[in-house]
Amino acid sequence: MSGRTDEEMSGRVPKPTARTRERVRDSAVLRRVRRLPRGPRPEAVPLLVGRACALVGLLDIAAGVFPRFRHSRMHALAEVLPGALGSFAAALSLSAGVLLLLLAHGLKRGKRRAWRAAVALLPVGAVAQFTYRHSLLGVLIPLVLLTLLLRHRDQFAALPDPRSRWRALANFVLMGAGSLLLGLVIVNAQPGRLVGDPSLADRLAHVLYGLFGFEGPVDYRGDTSWTVAFCLGALGWLTAVTTVYLAFRPEHPAARLTEDDETRLRALLAEHGGRDSLGHFALRRDKAVVFSPSGKAAVTYRVVSGVMLASGDPIGDVEAWPGAIERFMDEARAHSWTPAVMGCSETGGQVWTRETGLDALELGDEAVVDVKDFSLAGRAMRNVRQMVKRIERAGYETRVRRVRDLGEAELDRIRRAADDWRGTDTERGFSMALGRVGDPADGDCLVATAHKADAEPGEYGDLKAILHFVPWGGDGVSLDLMRRDRAADPGMNELLIVAALQAAPALGIERVSLNFAMFRSALARGEKIGAGPVLRAWRGLLLFLSRWFQIESLYKFNAKFRPRWEPRFVVYRVSADLPRIGFAAMQAEGFLNLAVPLPRFLRRRTPAPRPCAHRPVLEPAPSEGTVRAA
Question: pTM of the entire structure?
């Protein structure tokens, strides 16, 4: 007969004794000790090697620039990868440090090309250490890193990112500026060896001459002149070599939506397009697409700064979403891209997090107006009603039509006006902008225009404002862009939204999706009585940022039409990725432009639109910030 203790009878677990805790601790230590001979986990090797290369690169640069550092105890650490070799110690240390810093990021991302370069560089460094300095430490550590790279070579299989030869120009500008600044540090790091007191202009001239391999106007005592000359020459050589390499390496252009992809996506939207108001924006032709194995679902994306950005929910049958999401994640792993989803719905966020283990964060709310519930009557709509009546009395009239019902001449005028009224040189929009107006393939799109017949005709006749909507299934539309003549009366957007809502029943439209309001819930709750200090502080920060970004203004504009709010989410891997995802999203939406500025005559022309069986169409730029830019 067996007995049980009170703890077992009550279901409680007995408190572990001190001896038990010591046994568990010893077991954990033993497991760590046993793991040491096996080395780090394979998936941690890219990050470990990348960080080691970055650290050694900084030490090598310091050893090449600062003479005292070359003779300090820390200099022993700077010899672990190939720097500090013989009489060319400073120049070689500096070159090795710059190369290692350039390789570190690619190694951390598991890039195959960075692995090949590091495998070639490490043996050369080890041989040089032994030949010039007979340093066993300088041989041992490169060989340890080389062993890690060779043993875990399968962890460095990531394919190259999309790129073009314009990267060579960017490298020349950035490396040239960096070499110039680092060269000034080198020239000024020898205060006790300078002859006289050369001016800043002389020192700058010395750096410029040195980068091209010539002797400059600054003199030093002893052999310091040779050291400075070799270091400056090494920087110039690195700038030239990396620029030439980037200029002549094969291009990997960004993927684009092909005609076959677009045809398949349109078929999926025809059957399942009513699920997501952002579905039609998947037809942007600067996006790429992956399909599920069955072909019944797809995910569209764009790669920006190493982030694989999807937008909205997957297209197609919900049952096939996991297959498309798996293909998306496989593509991200193959290129070592950071996966992210901008603006997915609650259902989409649940599927993404369940299938991938990613996390989701509420990004904001989408304003959706049910046409049958919309009315200008009542106190809540008084401001909108008064504004619309005032504009109508000023002589404006509206027209709401499908794109297929417009003539080619009027479509061309609308396209040119939308392009001219964009307001910014930067094209904006990605997740909630189609990027074109009046394409024959988009005949179901809706165009609302405002006209003023009694005004003096301008370049675009009596046209004063444009709203463009894309289809949302068979009974809805989703706002794409809002453009107006800057000389027109205020309130054009309110006038056209009301006109579109009033014309919707005759067009078979039951729901209209308006702008996306970022952090809408925080703004709404933070202004209510009883809001806590943290929420009020967060709202205050959003109001401050609204000076530069349309956060509060879009929320207040949407709220005028008494919509229902549908939450939208950003899906991400780890919290540390959020700043990078936000930076990439701002680039994709057009709020940040990191391209090298070029003269107008050197700018690449926008590719011609895809030929159409009916008639050719010009493709304008996407909308400005007042559209559905997230």
Answer: 0.68
